[in-house]
Amino acid sequence: MFKVKSGMTRMAILLGPIVLKFPHLTYGIREFWTGVIANMSEFAIWKCLRGEATFLAPTLFTFFGLVNVQLRERGEMVSGQELQKRYKLLDLEARNLI
């Protein structure tokens, strides 16, 4: 059994403990490329921060941003203010990935 969820730039297929995230063309080519960049940056940030990014689900693999394979988890819910605080704590390499 699976579920499909959709956002503005990406759609997610939930398959048991795994989530597949794809950029989609529903809203045009610009949103498609935004979805590709979102997938790539999500993977890069997870790879760089690992356990420090408790608000991100673990990204196991990305295929050039066209698909992300992630563990299905509920990440820590954080406010915009909390994200800004955490952003300031990131090293320069991690900031450049965002």
Question: How would you characterize this protein structure?
Answer:
This protein has 98 residues and is an alpha+beta fold. 38% of the residues lie in helices and 26% in strands.
Write the layout of secondary structure elements.
Elements: E1 2-6, E2 10-15, E3 18-23, H1 29-49, E4 59-62, E5 68-71, H2 80-89, H3 92-97
Descriptive keywords:
alpha+beta; 5-stranded antiparallel β-sheet; globular; 98 residues
- What structural category characterises the helix and strand content? alpha+beta
SSE succession: EEEHEEHH
Helix content: 25-40%
Chain oligomer state? single chain
Task: Provide a compact summary of the structure.
The protein has three helices and five strands; from the N terminus they run E-E-E-H-E-E-H-H. It is of the alpha+beta class and 98 residues long.
